[in-house]
Amino acid sequence: MNRHDLINTIRDKRSFLCIGLDPDWSKIPEHVKALPDPIFEFNRQIIEATHDLCVAYKPNLAFFEAQGPSGLESFKKTLECIPKGILTIADAKRGDIGNTASLYAKSFFEFYGCDAITVNPYMGKDSVTPFLEYANHWTILLALTSNGGASDFQLKDTEGQMLYERVIETSMQWGTEDNLMYVVGATKASMLQAIRKQIPNHFLLVPGVGAQGGSLSEVAKYGMNKDCGLLVNASRSILFASNGLDFAAKARAEAIRMQTEMSALLAAGGVL
Amino acid sequence: MNRHDLINTIRDKRSFLCIGLDPDWSKIPEHVKALPDPIFEFNRQIIEATHDLCVAYKPNLAFFEAQGPSGLESFKKTLECIPKGILTIADAKRGDIGNTASLYAKSFFEFYGCDAITVNPYMGKDSVTPFLEYANHWTILLALTSNGGASDFQLKDTEGQMLYERVIETSMQWGTEDNLMYVVGATKASMLQAIRKQIPNHFLLVPGVGAQGGSLSEVAKYGMNKDCGLLVNASRSILFASNGLDFAAKARAEAIRMQTEMSALLAAGGVL
After folding, report:
1. Catalytic residue among A33, A58, A76, A93
2. Average pLDDT for residues A98-121, to the nearest whole number?
3. Which residue from A146, A150, A125, A128 is spatially nearest to A138, judged by alpha carbons?
4. Fold classification of B3-268 (topology level)
5. CA of B27, closest CA in chain A: separation in Å?
6. Per the residue annotation, which of B33, B58, B77, B93 is the catalytic one?
7. Which residues of B touch A145 (CB under 8 A)?
8. Prediction ipTM score
9. Domain residue limits, chain A
10. Are A45 and A248 a contacting pair, CB within 8 Å?
11. What strands lie across the sheet with B161-162, from one edge to the other?
């Protein structure tokens, strides 16, 4: 999916919601666990209940890999049941040297057919550029993450700028606004203002809203640009809004709540 | 495998060779590709030909994931045919927030039964400690990698020390010499001297010898300690020493060449 189509989808759906598909086995409703391939079935019902409200799905590989090889079958089936026109992001946080990165790119972009993948910047340029070589696909680089450990290295001063700022400044030379996005955690929403000065046009993938406590209005205030420029992710707050028979309906209700707030923010921000 | 057993294995085998199992489809001999599960069969023959000469095997997940879910079956079968007493390292370079990191740890340490995993430090403490909670297992943190991109961030001055030095200094508080190792590329062998001052006792996993051009004697000169403290990895130079019917025999010959050199270096270093 290219940038033009992504922006149009945001305007059409009046939403910049990304739903994180983190099918945590310990939280999947018991009645779903009784069905064949519960991981897939849980995702399928979530997707069926929410696909008109979001513009992206972001399955996190850890939840699939934890099931062994069969979990990757569930991953593939999950991707296949996401309707066309919705961005699919493999939250894999891969990062390896050149020829190995190429294999990861091939796996996620070709075999699984994802539109985008999250990538770790620690190993530098040749670990990132193999992903950027795919037209109409996205590399989403970790910049400032939403976990406590982000302060260990990402917030350290690195020759005059924080490491995450250096990651952005250096990597923006490797790709363009059309194939490169950044992960910026909502728990540091005030930092979005400085990031927007640095990269006014790039899309930002923002986790940490919802269960992790970040504020959607703060994110929009500091991070929204004329094209929206934001994908705000929610996982647990939607997926596990209920653990009963009504889990999909409750997931839809929470997605509607977020989409409604997003619609107002898009209008206020002049995107609509 | 604990530290005591690893050191004893190094002394018994007079080797600190780690063989990287990177079954690159484009380089697997044609006659192996005609067999069922060629990825596994290639690894099996390499392991059969080399297991008395090395102390560790390091399969890189990218080469298995590139085959889709069936590649993970090949990965599991590969691990199962590695003889007991040899360290198994999942070269996965994972790194994610706490609960997700726990799932990766469970997957690699419990489901696949690996002794060790490589981990990316960018997301900080809570992305690393879930791996360290497993007794008799190892977390191998990327510090200074052997690729060109290492200079983009790892070699930047970060509040008075290079980022990779800060990664080591900070993370050595999270684990111990008994559960934490570091990746230090052989292409920067001279930097091993400074790293040894910083961490005299930790094991270092050293890629980049062989096809990537690093020198084994330089690595030993700067990096060896009284327990050896080194695992030197070779992948392509062993796996693809020949692409004919004699590939396993040629792999063995190259492994013997390295083990012979390592034996002399261990004796000269006072480890034997």
Report:
1. A93
2. 96
3. A128
4. TIM Barrel (3.20.20)
5. 13
6. B93
7. 97, 122-123
8. 0.96
9. 3-268
10. yes
11. A161-162, A157-158, B157-158, B161-162
